[in-house]
Each structure stands twice: as structure tokens, then as C-alpha cells.
Amino acid sequence: MRILVFGINYAPELTGIGKYTGEMCEWLAEKGHDVEVITSMPYYPEWKIRKAYQGRWWFTETINNVKVRRTVFYVPEKVTGATRIAHEFSFLVSSAIWWLNSMFKRYDLVVSPYPPLIIGVWPYLYSRFHKTKWVFHIQDLQVDAARDLGLIKNNRLLNILDQIECFFLRKADYVSSISEGMKKKILAKGISEEKYIMLPNWVDTDFIKPMSKQDSMRKELGFGDNDIIILYSGNMGEKQGLEAVIPMALKFAFRPEVKIVLAGEGAAKERLMRETESGNLKNVTFLPLQPYEKLSSFLAIADFHLVLQKKAASDLLLPSKLLSILSAGGCAIVTAVDNSSLHRMIAETNAGWLAEPEDIEDLIRIVEKAIDSPSENVLKKENARKYALRYLNKDKVLGEFQNVISGLS
């Protein structure tokens, strides 16, 4: 098949949508499909264009047999509602140069990972012009999240965004998403189940696998064998509920063996660093996002992994960091609303600890319970790895997706 993918995020970004879009395209190309991508310069989660791409304009590169067409665009130094809209709109306009060329090519399938919402504009026009099948792939219900998390408070603007989103959902030939909870919300918007495709996120279970503490990066990072490390690794945004980390650090300040490690980048990182410094919290360590090739050995430093999510984000997104934790056989401490996809995944498999979202006292209670339950932690780690091997294997997930798209009519 000739496949065109249009997304604002792409490899070599290590987290979020760019990671999954890059892996999907490279996997499909490896299977013999002709895959092209129209995307931006890599910038996420640092919100800064990578050094190797700075100062460049429109150009094409080939990454693992995928033809990647890059476009120049605006990346704000400070992310606000207004600057983010300008950022996304600049990509839409700038990518027109590639789309004007693509309009005269024939593709068998167009895939557009969402968000951002504007990502539907060019695929919609192309699919109408060529009668090509278009899959609108939802990684994050952006408008619902903006409303429920209070990121956008203007009801008129939210109503307009709702209408645009519903327009793309209706006009797309197929709509896919990553969880049963998101599927339920999408179908509730009036989308028929016949046009829905389940495409869960995945993990390379052969690459990300359990490792011992002795083989981990503990010594390299200056931690001891007897330290109890509670790790958060990934995007530090406003949807994650990371404000719980500060009171947790205060609670464990009297236990010097308990270390809290925050690794990654994002809009909330500077605020957390200021609060840590002002509170004189010596048990919190900040690290940059670690290289993918070291991910197994880095995840292995942790006794426990924090997977935090606000109540309002329930079933609007699914934290992708959890998949790597499960594959690494890590012991996750997850905040999830009862009966959400995330809650059911952990509860039904006993693959981690569960705490109430936005309930700091309950989270601390669960962390203390986990620390005092070594035999239960061993069981949860074993269950985590088993779940990853059975349900999250990259070849299995993408193989099923390939079968689906090959039969689209």
C-alpha cells in the first residue's frame, strides 16, 4: 500500500504521539509498504526544536525507509493557550507546501494522528479530492481534555472546537483510538461502531525488558543499592497531576532512603523545581529524558513507578509511559478513576497498585503500603510483564492493524 501519514509529532521524538507514529510508520515500511510522512521538526517534550534541525526550512529525509517531509513552524518559548493555537496553526499553514505537491499523488490510505485538531484539515481535503480512505487516529481527546481540565474556559471557543472535532469524526472514513474508554466516548459523539478501529499503543517487549538493580543505571546516577527509588519518567505536563509529588516528598523527608526521581521535560517541570528548591527538599532529583537505548536499564533503577493522572483526564487519554513500565516488569503506582480503562487494566491483572486521583493522602498511603509489601510487589511485577507480552507486543498490535487497513473498503 501507499500510505501517507500527517502529524505534528514524529521520530526522533522519544515520548508521546511522535514515538508511536514513528514506530508505526517504520514497522509498516519494514513490511513492504510505501510510507510517506508530512510532519514538523522534532520539538517535543522539550518545546524546543532539536539542535540538528534548528535553522532548517522545508526538507525531506529518509528514516528507516520512511520518506519524512519536514516543515518549518513556530515553537513558543512559553506554552499558553494563545501560543499553542499559533503553534498549531503555523504548522497547518506551513505544511501546505508539501500538501500542494501531495494533492497530485495517489495514496491508498491517509492516516492523521490527533491531536492537534487542525490535523484533520488537509487529510479531509485530500480524501474528498481523491476518494482515498482516511483514518483519523485519536491518541488524546484534546477538546474534551481542554474543557474538563480547565485549560480552556471560554465556552464559545469550546463549542466551536467541538463542532470542528465532530465534523472531522463524521467525515473521516474510519476513526481509531487507543482504549475502550476512549472508544465509548467517541461512539457517544455519534460515530457508528462500523467505522471504528481499535489501535492500542504498544511496546517493544523484546527491547524493553526486566533488568536487575545491579545491571541498572543506579550506580551511574549516584544511587545506592539500599535506596528506595520512586520514579516518574515522561512528560511533565498539566494533565499528569504532578503537584502530588511535593507533599509526597515532604512526607518521606524523614526517611532518607526514600528517593523521588523525576525524569523528563514539560510545562510543569520549572514549577516543580521551584517548589522543590523553596521547600529545601533534598529527596527529590530531577533528570533529563533518558536516551531510548538506555530505557530498560534506566527503568530498572526504580522500586516503584508513578503513573499519575487527574480525574478529569479519565478515558480522554491513556498514559503511554505505563506500557514501558509493564514491559520492564516494573511495579507501578497508578492513580485512576474507578471503572476507567486504566483502572480496569491494573485491577483485573493485579499488575500494579491503585490510588485515587487527586487524593494526596490516599496516594501516600498506597506508596507506604507498597514499600511494606515486598512479596506483593514481586507478584505485581510478574503480572506486569505477562500482560505486556500478551497484549502490548508491537508486532502483534501493528500486525492486527495492518490486517485491518489492508481490508478497508
UniProtKB/TrEMBL annotation:
It comes from the Bacteria. The keyword Electron transport does not apply. Residues 214-386 form the Glycosyl transferase family domain. CDD domains: GT4_WbuB-like. This is A-glycosyltransferase. The keyword Transferase applies. Residues 15-202 form the Glycosyltransferase subfamily 4-like N-terminal domain. GO terms for molecular function: hexosyltransferase activity. It comes from Sporocytophaga myxococcoides. SUPFAM superfamilies: UDP-Glycosyltransferase/glycogen phosphorylase. Gene3D superfamilies: Glycogen Phosphorylase B (3.40.50.2000). Keywords: Transferase.
